[in-house]
Specification:
Number of helices: 10
Helix content: 25-40%
CATH class of the largest domain: Alpha Beta
Distance between the termini: 17 Å
Radius of gyration: 23 Å
Structural class: alpha+beta
CATH superfamily of the largest domain: Zn peptidases
Length: 408
């Protein structure tokens, strides 16, 4: 099997040039109308390729089918990827750059940004390969437009090779995954898959069936603003309170100090001034009991600061987002083994690693659709130093073809 690199590059480049940044402060769904620009583009492309049951739902989900050609003897497999990109870096006006036959040195992205092995040592795993980046002023968008690209290219290959037998495939491209809302209006019954895979992971070979349990926290500090010249015994500085809160968090339990199964507290965004400060945090842990302990720690800290500064001075609201999908995958572990076999058939050794985050598959699994996660090949998601080896994108496309092929 040979997946054409130019086809992948051209398709991927077309997708990432469409700004689909989701908006975590929006109350609409999808959170940003620009996400629908890619949705409409995909509908047209899928129809042109000859897929069936192509539609964009009223909430912006794109669905399609590749009919079975094996007599209907196989389960219906779903393939899922998300259309939006993270709001942590700009996704507008992405300029795609291809660094052919990477030589192992620094990759200059812009006058002020370089992708260096000294900072990102895994780059050296791709010496001799073609590295796709942005120009260093935006993210790239491999998360998750690489997943969309691989899914559609795999379907294109199967349509061109009818001798390769497969069951029915159901495709779903979702909005708002990056802000934790990707399954909020997912048309589960209409989708109709027996099980599915998100294509939303990292380095080549990664296979995930464990994710964090996730909770978001919003903390408000209510201060009293008084002119600093006459503030003694009157001012209550909300900025000082927020700084005290941050310093009270366990120092080693932050994302920059943790890995593997280690959870964390992460202060994501802070805004305000003397009179009022608002802080957004995320809490994550693979162990649900430990996540509950983290939540209780924040509530205890809230009570402590209220006792210190006065009733109502600190408010903390908690919202559970998703749970570890492991408990939903283990009863049907054969779908993980199916993915392992597909990787090996494509010449890729599977690496089972826990996701230090979540995917649409976390919530879909809880909704009754078991949904492990497959690699895309991308690295450094959500930032200006995101990159994607083109050969890794080739490999995940090959893996998908093997994944859905009728077993002999």
């Amino acid at each position: 099997m040979q997946i054409d690199k130019n086809t992948l590059l051209n398709r991927f480049s077309a997708y990432v040039r469409i700004d689909t940044t989701s908006d975590d402060r929006s109350k609409t769904f999808p959170s940003a109308l620009r996400e629908l620009d890619l949705a409409r583009f995909l509908v047209d492309e899928l129809l042109e390729l000859g897929l069936s049951e192509v539609e964009m739902t009223e909430h912006g989900y794109v669905l399609a089918s590749l009919p079975a050609n094996d007599g209907g003897k196989s389960p219906v497999i779903g393939l899922v990827a998300h259309m939006d990109t993270s709001c942590e870096a700009s996704g507008a006006n992405v300029q795609v750059e291809v660094h052919e036959k990477y030589n192992g040195g620094d990759i200059q992205l812009s006058p002020n940004a370089a992708l260096r092995p000294a900072d990102f040592p895994e780059l050296l795993n791709y010496v001799g390969q073609d590295i796709i980046t942005s120009d260093g002023t935006t993210l790239l968008g491999a998360d998750d437009k690489a997943g969309i690209c691989a899914i559609i290219t795999a379907c294109e290959y199967l349509l061109a090779h009818p001798e390769v037998k497969h069951g029915k495939l159901r495709l779903a491209f979702t909005p708002d995954e990056e802000i934790g809302r990707g399954t909020e209006h997912f048309p589960l019954e209409r989708f109709g898959a027996d099980f599915a895979y998100t294509v939303d992971g990292g380095a080549v070979g990664e296979l995930n069936y464990e994710t964090f349990n996730a909770c978001n926290a919003h903390i408000t500090f209510h201060g009293v603003s008084v002119h600093p010249g006459s503030a003694k015994n009157k001012m209550r500085n909300a900025v000082t309170m927020a700084a005290e809160w941050q310093m009270a968090l366990p120092a080693g339990e932050r994302p920059e100090y943790t890995e593997g199964y280690e959870g964390f507290y992460h202060s994501l965004r802070i805004e305000g001034g003397t009179d009022k400060v608002e802080l957004d945090m995320i809490l994550r842990d693979h162990d649900k009991k430990i996540l509950e302990q983290r939540k209780e720690f924040l509530l205890d800290l809230t009570r402590y600061m209220q006792n210190k500064y006065g009733a109502g001075t600190v408010e903390c609201s908690l919202k559970d987002c998703y749970s570890n999908m492991r408990e939903y995958i283990m009863p049907v572990y054969e779908i993980v083994e199916r993915a392992e076999n597909a990787m090996r058939a494509a010449g890729v050794e599977p690496v089972l690693v826990p996701v230090r985050g979540g995917t649409d598959g976390s919530l879909l699994s809880a909704m009754g659709l078991p949904c492990p996660n497959l690699f895309t090949g991308g690295h450094n998601f959500h930032g200006r130093f995101e990159y994607l080896p083109l050969q890794s994108l080739q490999k995940i496309t090959e893996v998908l073809v093997h994944l859905v092929t009728t077993e002999k």
